[in-house]
Amino acid sequence: MRRIPGLLAIAVLAAIPLLPVPPFWITLINNIGLASLVAIGLVLLTGVGGLTSFGQAAFCGFGAYTTAVLTTAYGFSPWATLPFSLLVGAAAALPLGLITVRLSGHYLPLGTIAWGIALYYLFGQIEMLGRFDGISGIPPIELAGHRFISGQSIFYLIWAFVIATALGARNLLDSRVGRGIRALRGGRRAAEAFGVDIVRAKLTVFIFAAVVAALSGWLYAHMQRTVNPTPFGLNMGIEYLLMAVIGGAGHVWGAVFGAAIVLILKEILQRILPGLLGATGNFEMILFGMLLVAMLQFAREGLWPLLLRLAPTRSRVQVAASQGALPGRRDAVPAQGPLIRVEKVRKAFGGLVAVNDLSFDVKAGEIVGLIGPNGAGKSTTFDLITGMLALTGGRVAFGGRKEGRRSPGAIARLGVARTFQHAKILPDMTVLENVALGANLRGSAGVVRSLLRLDRKEETLLLAEAERQLERVGLAEHRNRPAGDLALGQIRILEIARALALDPTVLLLDEPAAGLRHGEKQALSALLSRLRSEGMAVLLVEHDMSFVMGLVNRVVVMDFGTLIAEGTPAEVRRHPAVIAAYLGGVA
Predict the structure, then answer these.
(1) Alpha helical stretches, state H, 147-283
(2) CA 548, CA 569: separation in Å to the nearest integer?
């Protein structure tokens, strides 16, 4: 039932060239298809990955010029040039991406504008590319003796590529790799903590967007049979971004919808505005700018989500019963001696010393409470242990191995999972998907397997593991809700479920009981006691002293970044320095 609207849309699309419609309509729909390819890439790059790019038109130019040169100057057939066009697009995206993805804030879009303009003028200055006159006489695509010369003939080829690309993009987003990409927008710290390589994820989506833009350029060159720099400049880059935003920057099919709206509206405005204004010019760009501002004010998610609200609500796909098991992380850290040993750890921010020569350890099968007044340095200590912050001095040993500087992902591979003082969930993803992100390191499927949907067995195991952890913490009934809809206490529990999905040896919990009711705290205490009995080590930061003292084996007390006491709960309660830190020296 869920596939009927899609199949109906494809059937209507396939029937258009067979109907007595004007050739102009066919040309317009072909242009919509070409623009849709670029916009689909931008949905993943900008809408999902959060990387704003105004320079995608330049990658169309790489694809178009590659096939133009190879077919006209070296006698290649158009099909033989397709892999070269895609490879050139990817090769150009790699160095640009390595530079661009490290930018943030307004520097990121400014960077894409800069290289978009530079590449446009580069195309116009190279003699081999015909300078600004371009290259003509490009042969048409041929298949089984049929030459795709007319708009009707190439129509099916263009839209076959659009549908295949859209399905591939959907497959990618609905995968382990896709969750890492989706986490780029608002959940970077959580993604890093569970082994997502942020730079690699950004580069992946950047190259994907460039490759599909190069594909669009390849098709464009053989449809028009001539190329010049004009379609590959900044103006078209802005239009492509507008298509993605108007359609719905987080929705693959919204890219197609947005491309149709922009190109149809552009055609109408180009016909109407000169007569109304009594002058010629690109006045439609002014209205497009106004439309974009209006969209950002009243429909920031685009128009496609508005259409989806009108459609019947689809039932969520249930997690299939899985056969087999995921690789675990429990054996990643040896269980001999302390699982974590903090040795004279120091962290200074300029002249401020947040953690000062702190030393303690955490053994298997025990819960250690890390307590102290606000500002004592507890969360900073968590960040130092998990690699979120670099050590100023000292070292952290995992399972007896004294390691130097490690990334958060490398530490997660050792079986160390954590939650955050301020919850780091992905509100637009479902509860189940948030937990599945925690199992990221327990999968291995890459981009190609995800695009071709060859990762389904592994994905089933990942989701089944996420389901198991949700049942373990009592959130299974909320599995299909957006995580942002949960109450604060439920979000705290969700973070614990996500951490458990890593199958950790050591669990670091930063204020897990904050926002929980009395009954929920009791359930959390029972869960942590079960984990301790299974041999897991837990390091706990918490301000609820009754919760801590009734649960932990040992307590480590910090004040102003310095260790002031360590021992059993009973010993710590009586320690003069602890009493002074919490109640004041006079008391």
Answers:
(1) 151-173, 176-182, 188-193, 198-224, 234-248, 252-277
(2) 8
- Between 275 and 367, residue with greater pLDDT: 367
- Tokens 């009594």 belong to 278
The C-alpha atoms of residue 470 and residue 493 are separated, in whole angstroms, by 9
Distance between CA atoms of residues 64 and 213, nearest Å: 10
Element (H, E) at 138: none
Q: Specify the pLDDT at position 506.
A: 94
With tokens 């048409």, the residue in question is: 140
Tokens representing 37 are: 């390819």
**Residue 273 structure tokens:** 């505005």
pLDDT at 315 over 50: no
* Residue where the block lists tokens 């006698």: 75
Name beta bridge partners: 349: 352
What DSSP element (H or E) covers 356? Answer: strand 352-362
Mention every residue, 6+ apart, whose C-beta is less than 8 A from residue 513: 492, 521, 524, 542, 544, 547
Burial class (CB in 10 A: 0-12, 13-18, 19+), 72: middle
Q: Looking at the predicted structure, is the pLDDT value of residue 199 above 50?
A: yes
pLDDT (tens digit per residue) in 346-355: 999 988 899 9
Question: Could you give phi then psi for residue 346, rounded to 5 degrees?
Answer: -135, 140
Distances (CA, A) of 88 to 4, 66, 113, 171, 398: 38, 7, 20, 24, 44
> What is the DSSP annotation of 261-318?
HHHHHHHHHHHHHHHHHTS-S-THHHHHHHHHHHHHHH-TT-SHHHHHHHSPPPPPPP
Mean per-residue pLDDT, 471-476: 92
- Say if residues 43 and 252 touch (Cβ distance below 8 Å): yes
- Residue 196's Cα: distance from chain center in Å? 9
pLDDT of residue 12: 80
Cα dihedral sign for 175, 187, 247, 34?
negative
430-459 per-position pLDDT tens digit = 999 999 999 999 999 999 999 999 999 999
Strands laid side by side in the 352-362 sheet: 352-362, 340-349, 393-398, 401-403
Does the pTM exceed 0.85? yes
Type and span of the H or E element at 446: none
Q: Which residues contact 503 (CB under 8 A, 6 or more apart)?
A: 326, 328, 329, 330, 415, 439, 442
The reported pLDDT for the residue numbered 304 is 87
CB 434 within 8 A of CB 485: no
Angle subtended by helix axes 518-533 and 488-500, to nearest 10: 10
Radius of gyration of the chain (CA): 28
> Which residue's structure tokens are 């082994």?
195
Bridge partners of residue 358, in order along the sequence: 345
